[in-house]
Structures are given as structure tokens and as C-alpha cells.
Amino acid sequence: MKVVNKWTRQGEMHLSTLILLLVLFAALPTDGQNEATFIRKHIKLDMTPANCDKEMEEINKEMEKKNKNFKGCKKMNTFIKDTIENVRKVCTEGFGKNLETNFFQSNQAFTKVECVTTDTKKPCKYNGKEVKAPIHVACDQNNRPVHYGPPKRKG
């Protein structure tokens, strides 16, 4: 009869659980955003290129609150002129192409406004451009968009 040390079994189980959690967390986007933050930063049905300065002022204030070292102007931000319901669909196969773990590209073009800074010193000024193109989003485990942009290139 073989005697099994219960401490060894529990240790193996805890190690397995830890490894599983590490794998799961490694697959999540790292900027800590949630869907509500994504909506505030990127969903704006009535956005126009002329509104970039005003809208980006709010984004920059939010970034300053989050990061006390941030004193400049965010270089770029994209506003999607569509509903969150349509953007959520990109997080599922059939509406979006899975490029990498949790990162999707839409199968359809969305109308969006890209705001790009013309000066990184305050007062921040932006040029806006309306384009129609696929969008790239990172999605959480509940198929909710939490980050805008393609996956970061490695290397």
C-alpha cells in the first residue's frame, strides 16, 4: 500500500492553480481598462474632426488624473462613430477576425475620427480626420471591448 503525502498533493494542486491563473492573466490586455473606460475614450456617435480639441481635452484630463506624471498631450486617439453594441460584435467570431489572443479586427469598415496632436505642449491642438476602415479592439473574457488598437508588435 502506497502512502500519499497530503501536503505534496495540496502543493501540486496550488501550483497548478497558480500556473493556470498566470496563463489567464497573461492573455488579458495590460492597460487595465474596462468597457466603461473604452466607451468614454472611443465611442462617440456625433464626433466630428472639428471636435478633436474639445474631446481630447477631456481625455488628457482623465490621463492626468490616472497618471500624475502625465503633463502633456496624448499623441492620438480614435473615436468610433457607432454604437457599443455594434463594436461588441467585433469581439466574436463571425463579426471580427481574431488576430491574436483577445485582439480582433472587424470584418466591416466603421466610420471613425482620428485625432492626432499637432503640438505635444499645452494647450493641446489636434488635427482630426474622418475615415472609414476596419477597427482593432482587445476584448475581455466576456467579449467586451476594453482597448482600441492592434496588438503590439513583438521584437
What does this structure look like?
This protein is α+β, with helices and mostly antiparallel strands. It has one domain: Roll (P-30 Protein), CATH 3.10.130.10. It contains four helices and seven strands, in the order αααβαββββββ. It has helices at residues 6-26, 35-42, 52-66, 84-89, and strands at residues 76-80, 96-100, 103-106, 110-119, 125-133, 136-139, 145-148. The strands form two sheets. It has a four-stranded antiparallel β-sheet with strand order 2-3-6-7. The chain starts with 5 loop residues before the first helix and ends in a 7-residue tail after the last strand. 23% of the residues are buried. The model is unreliable at 15-30 (pLDDT under 50). One of its GO terms (biological process) is defense response to Gram-positive bacterium. It comes from Pygocentrus nattereri (Red-bellied piranha). Keywords: Endonuclease, Hydrolase, Nuclease, Signal. This is Ribonuclease A-domain domain-containing protein. Residues 1-32 form the signal peptide.
Summarize the structure.
This is Ribonuclease A-domain domain-containing protein. The protein has helices at 6-26, 35-42, 52-66, 84-89, and strands at residues 76-80, 96-100, 103-106, 110-119, 125-133, 136-139, 145-148.
Helix content: 25-40%
Low-confidence stretches: 15-30
- The total of beta strands comes to 7
Q: What is the domain total for the residues?
A: 1
Q: Classify the oligomer.
A: single chain
Fraction of residues in β-strands: 25-35%
**Rg estimate, integer Å:** 20 Å
CATH hierarchy, class: Alpha Beta
Written as H for each helix and E for each strand, in order along the chain, the element string is HHHEHEEEEEE
Under CATH, the topology is which?
A: P-30 Protein
Silhouette: globular
User: Which secondary-structure class do the elements indicate?
Assistant: alpha+beta
- Order of strands side by side in the largest beta sheet? 2-3-6-7
Number of helices: 4
Mean pLDDT: 83
Calculate the terminal CA-CA distance, rounded to whole Å.
54 Å
Which CATH architecture is right? Answer: Roll
Pfam family, one: RnaseA
GO biological process, one term: defense response to Gram-positive bacterium
GO molecular function: endonuclease activity; hydrolase activity; nucleic acid binding; RNA nuclease activity
Family: Belongs to the pancreatic ribonuclease family.
